[in-house]
Design goal:
Shape: globular
Strand order of the largest sheet: 1-2-3-5-4
CATH superfamily: HIT-like
Largest sheet: 5 strands, antiparallel
CATH architecture: 2-Layer Sandwich
Bound molecules: zinc ion
Distance between the termini: 29 Å
Strand content: 15-25%
Length: 145
Amino acid sequence: MKEAKENCVFCKILAGKLPVSMIYEDEKVVVFVDLEPVNEGHLLIVPKYHAPYMKDVDTDTLMHMMKIAQQMNAALRKSEFKCEGVNLFLADGEAAHQSVFHSHLHVYPRFVGDGFGFKYDKSKHFVTAPRGRMDEIAAIIKKHL
Ligand SMILES: [Zn+2]
């Protein structure tokens, strides 16, 4: 099963069973260099316990991940890496391009012309819906809060 701790590459890293280029560690998270970077400097912020999806990460740890992301963002911007901007990306679920089922936050440098980006059909995505539909969408989400 893809969500199983036994198959989890991040748990193997946390257990010292796989090599890693560690950047930071505290009581809640580790931060290390991504094996397959978008651009040099791409790092991952990873909870220290196995949590397949965002719903499985406790709120304090999620908040802490964002705090550490702010520090990593600042470090990237001060670094020698080409970094004109920074993306944060959390893929939650296979359809959202999650490939390691131990929830994690990507932080990676961006620069004009780096060639990376979301590909989309402009006739299908970023098309503003009528206000009535937007109100319906708001109501649907509110119902589940
Ligand atoms: Zn894991």
